[in-house]
Design brief:
The complex is a heterodimer.
Chain A lengths: L1 E9 L2 E9 L3 E5 L6 H9 L6 E6 L2 E5 L4 E2 L2 H4 L1 E4 L11 H6 L14 H7 L15 H14 L4 E5 L7 H18 L3 E5 L2 H7 L2 E6 L2 E7 H5 L5 H4 L5 E12 L4 E6 L2 E6 L8 E7 L3 E4 L10 E10 L6 E7 L3 E7 H7 L6 E6 L9 E3 L7
Parallel strand pairs in A: 3-9, 3-10, 7-8, 8-9
Antiparallel strand pairs in A: 1-2, 1-4, 4-5, 5-6, 10-11, 12-13, 12-15, 13-14, 15-21, 16-20, 17-18, 17-20, 18-19
Helix pairs in contact in A: 5-6
Chain B lengths: L1 H7 L3 H34 L5 H13 L2 H12 L4 H10 L7 H25 L3 H9 L4 H30 L2 H7 L9 H10 L4 H32 L6
């Protein structure tokens, strides 16, 4: 449980945020300069807010009115930095143990062996930090933060300095922290793809303020937030479950809100709970149920909302039991005379849904 | 044959001066190093009112004529000096006109050099590493001991060496404060001065010069080797 309500002025930047999160992984999402890093630095005690209050698990870490400002070392928050910040004079094993010797053992703690296994660090223990790859460095940094026995884990763009391959290597580890350790995580990111893959809830930041907060599915189905989340990346996110496979054609069937969705084959057990982003530019609309079409996914619904504007494209929010966004040309809107309330069919190519659009839902979000 | 043997053999006077110089420099550096590290850290990492004044005070011996420093020491630490009288009354310690006084003079003169080198080295330690250590539960003292100091060790070592070299060469403050007493305060530079002053001392003076050069070379080479090892140990790329 994290409860933050702070104001902070730094040069000509003003942070004025209020948000709370529960368990699971919460993404702080926003463009660079929106105040995400300043915010988690304030939570960690590395920046001092001018006023307000920060509470974690019922412990007040900062309260301007009561004159409380715990130093970082007393806050018991793990912090994984973008540039890992491993100690160059210590080897991997000593880096990992650094915070462990300082954590109060009476309050329980993470077992060294367990963390080493969880993050697959066994082969690295005696290595010097400068010989590690970027992905390995981040894994060590995560392990080091966990071993200091934190109440929550703060991660500041932990994947930003890694290439695509290394990112894919780290994400499963982050999912394991979320699902196996049940550690609340605050995850700063400016990449919507990452957020959809790992986050259950998200807080959208803009100009030092919280623009919106809620489940990833709810936030991503709001047309008004796309100026902040990235117009190019517009796309509703749905919560789906793996229900079947078509092995002959290499497809997997998902169910969501009483609909079925075919996607390219996923190597996941039946019942796996997923988050799926349906990018608006991959979704088409049709007024009649099309016959003889290559679209594998045809969903029935009704138009709920359309964004107005002079742009050549229009984002149309369609309710198919869950919100789905279709991006169509303004001309098509006129030809079809689309209006809110109108029944439509939503067409989605199965192959448009690639593995970058999928994330496993955390156990916390499943209730 | 005999003459070459005689050339390599040090005279009792030379041995005495070398021994005294090493003793004075060793104790001067030994006692000022901890203080030097603390002052360097304060100057590198703390912001407080009057910092430039403090900085100026620390660097004063570097810019004042050594004779002035020596005279000030005499006034303060001499038998009748403010601090000197108290030291003698309470502890029975006299530093004026003893080798201990020579060590004090050397220490004062070498202090700014030591602080400068250590301060630069501390400033070059990435503060983000110190922040990381704080988030891992280390208090500021622990951060200093486990991150800042180990990472600035090469600079501490350079500071140590600079200070030691400065102590070996100390002349002005020493001769003013503790005079030039054979066997007590006559270090190498003072011995050289005496020889230059006395008729027929040229050969002896040359020998002292050679000894000084040899000492300096040994210290430089040794420090070079040690610094390289230290850099390898802290994983630096040789700052």
């Amino acid at each position: 449980m994290i409860d933050v309500d702070i104001r902070l002025t730094k040069d000509d930047f003003r942070l004025d945020t209020k948000f709370e999160t529960d368990t699971g992984l919460t993404a702080l999402f926003g463009k660079s300069g929106s105040g995400k890093t300043t915010l988690i630095n304030a939570i960690a005690g590395l920046e001092r807010p001018d006023e307000g209050r920060i509470e974690v698990d019922g412990n007040v870490l900062f309260d301007a009115n009561a004159g409380i400002n715990l130093p970082p070392e007393k806050r018991r928050l793990g912090y994984v930095f973008q540039e890992s910040r491993l100690f160059p004079h210590l080897n991997v094993s000593k880096n990992l143990a650094y915070g462990m010797t300082l954590a109060r053992p009476a309050e329980g703690g993470q077992d060294f062996k367990r963390i080493v296994e969880l993050l697959d660090l066994g082969a690295l223990l005696t290595r010097r930090t400068r010989t590690l790859s970027g992905g390995e460095r981040q894994r060590v940094a995560i392990g080091r933060a966990l071993l200091a026995n934190p109440r929550i884990l703060l991660m500041d763009e932990p994947l930003a300095s890694l290439d695509a391959g290394r990112k894919a290597e780290i994400i499963p580890f982050i999912e394991r922290l979320r699902d196996e350790l049940l550690l609340p995580i605050v995850y700063v990111s400016h990449a919507i793809e990452e957020v959809i893959r790992v986050a259950d809830t998200m807080v959208v930041m803009s100009d030092g303020r919280v623009a919106a907060g809620g489940s990833v599915e709810d936030i991503m189905s709001r047309l008004d937030l796309y100026p902040l989340t990235g117009r190019y990346e517009t796309g509703a996110v749905i919560a789906a479950t793996v229900v079947g496979n078509d092995l002959d054609f290499g497809l997997t069937e998902l169910s969501f809100a009483e609909n079925r969705l075919w996607v390219p084959r996923l190597d996941l057990p039946l019942g796996t709970e997923l988050r799926v982003r349906l990018r608006a530019r991959d979704v088409s609309l049709c007024l009649e149920r099309p016959e003889k079409t290559s679209f594998l996914n045809i969903l029935e619904g009704s138009v709920r909302e359309m964004d107005a504007g002079d742009r050549p494209q229009v984002d149309v929010l369609v309710d198919v039991g869950a919100p789905v966004i279709a991006r169509v040309s303004r001309r098509s809107v006129q030809t079809l005379a689309l209006k809110p309330g109108m029944p439509v069919f939503v067409l989605i190519k199965a192959i448009a849904i690639d593995r970058h659009s999928l994330g496993r839902r955390g156990s916390a979000s499943r209730g | 044959m005999n003459e070459t043997a005689a050339f390599w053999e040090l005279s009792p006077l030379e041995i005495e001066a070398i021994g005294l110089s090493l003793k004075v420099s060793f104790w001067a550096v030994f006692f000022t190093l901890p203080l030097g590290i603390v002052v360097a850290w304060v100057l590198a990492r703390c912001e407080f009112w009057g910092k430039s004044l403090f900085n100026g005070f620390v660097h004063l011996p570097l810019i004042l004529p050594p004779v002035v420093v020596g005279y000030l020491l005499l006034v303060v630490l001499g038998r009748r000096g403010v601090l000197g009288a108290w030291l003698f009354d309470v502890f029975g310690i006299t530093v004026a006109f003893t080798w201990k006084g020579a060590a004090v003079a050397a220490a004062v003169m070498a202090f700014p050099l030591m602080v400068r080198a250590i301060r630069l080295s501390i400033e070059s330690v990435d503060m983000r590493l110190e922040q990381a250590a704080r988030t891992l539960g280390a208090n500021p003292f622990r951060v200093f001991a486990s991150v800042t100091l180990p990472l600035s060790l090469p600079g501490v070592f350079v500071g140590l060496l600079l200070a030691f070299a400065r102590c070996l060469g100390e002349f002005g403050a020493t001769i003013t404060f503790v005079s030039n007493i054979p066997g007590e305060t006559r270090t190498l530079p003072l011995a050289l001065y005496s020889l230059v002053q006395s008729p027929g001392g040229d050969a002896g003076a040359l020998r002292i010069v050679l000894i000084s050069v040899a000492l300096a070379m040994v210290a430089l080479v040794a420090s070079e080797i040690l610094a390289r090892r230290m850099n390898a140990r802290i994983g630096g790329s040789g700052r």
